[in-house]
């Protein structure tokens, strides 16, 4: 394919999205009076004050991965993605997830699809050790084509154990934890590349799995990070979602250098080659094999590497300056 693909060309302009969100947030100024005031806003999760503890809350959806599920006719994994996208953001501020509600908006009710979605939600809740305490379904034939799946999760954290990234400093290292694959971001670009190439989601990808099956690999739930937080000094965390490694910029302003990236799964190489996608665009759009990152003192990270608690390793460092780099390539330009 000679056409050069990008996330913006596929219909998702991250910079324009940031401007739209800023326009929304600038108009919302009211802060609750009395008990339960916010102590952290605009991070992976926001946190409100509940005395000794903070209550973390976040919301997210599965996005256009649903369209791959519809094309393949398989709906039993996207519920895991919905749980993962929410609880990983809760974990990224140092909180333990405890409960979640889901929201399904559908063109028309479908009992079989709902039952399949429920299988994934149940499995995701089991992995994350949370309870799905309720939710809402809406039938909106005039608004929705197919369906949409989203959720909201809450968690708790002792206020002196909240991790925002403010302790990140030059000399810290970046400890990368592998992803399970594409997770639930960048699917608009991935879908456009596959569909424009004339391939089908049922075409074989590798090891007997189809392209669609590989794209539907559920998002990894990083619940083991909670054990790391109990036993290691961690200065900041990044859940690598939309925006790829640029998620590191949600932490303290610094220069984040990924000098030894984790191995990139074959699905990313496939998308890049098929769509003629630039390296920097890939790292701005996808997790590229690293779904979660911890910013730690080097001695703590070395100890973690030897512990066997979690698969992963040191992938880079924090330096004076600013920006996000993968090897010598600056990504945030």
UniProtKB/TrEMBL annotation:
Its catalytic activity?
Answer: 2-formamido-N(1)-(5-O-phospho-beta-D-ribosyl)acetamidine + ATP = 5-amino-1-(5-phospho-beta-D-ribosyl)imidazole + ADP + phosphate + H(+)
| GO annotation, cellular component aspect | cytosol
**Primary location:** cytoplasm
Q: Which keywords, in A-to-Z order, does the entry hold?
A: ATP-binding, Cytoplasm, Ligase, Nucleotide-binding, Purine biosynthesis
User: Which Gene3D superfamilies did the record assign?
Assistant: PurM-like C-terminal domain, PurM-like, N-terminal domain
Domain PurM-like N-terminal, first and last residues per copy = 45-157
Show where the PurM-like C-terminal domain sits.
169-327
Annotated pathway: Purine metabolism; IMP biosynthesis via de novo pathway; 5-amino-1-(5-phospho-D-ribosyl)imidazole from N(2)-formyl-N(1)-(5-phospho-D-ribosyl)glycinamide: step 2/2
Q: State whether keyword ATP-binding applies.
A: yes
* SUPFAM superfamilies in the cross-refs: PurM C-terminal domain-like (SSF56042), PurM N-terminal domain-like (SSF55326)
Domain of life of the source: Archaea
The places in or outside the cell where this protein is found are: Cytoplasm
Molecular function in Gene Ontology: ATP binding; phosphoribosylamine-glycine ligase activity; phosphoribosylformylglycinamidine cyclo-ligase activity
Q: Which Pfam families match?
A: AIRS, AIRS_C
The answer to whether keyword Cytoplasm applies is yes
Q: What family is this?
A: Belongs to the AIR synthase family.
Quote the protein name from its UniProt record: Phosphoribosylformylglycinamidine cyclo-ligase
Recorded source organism is Archaeoglobus veneficus (strain DSM 11195 / SNP6)
- Gene (name only): purM
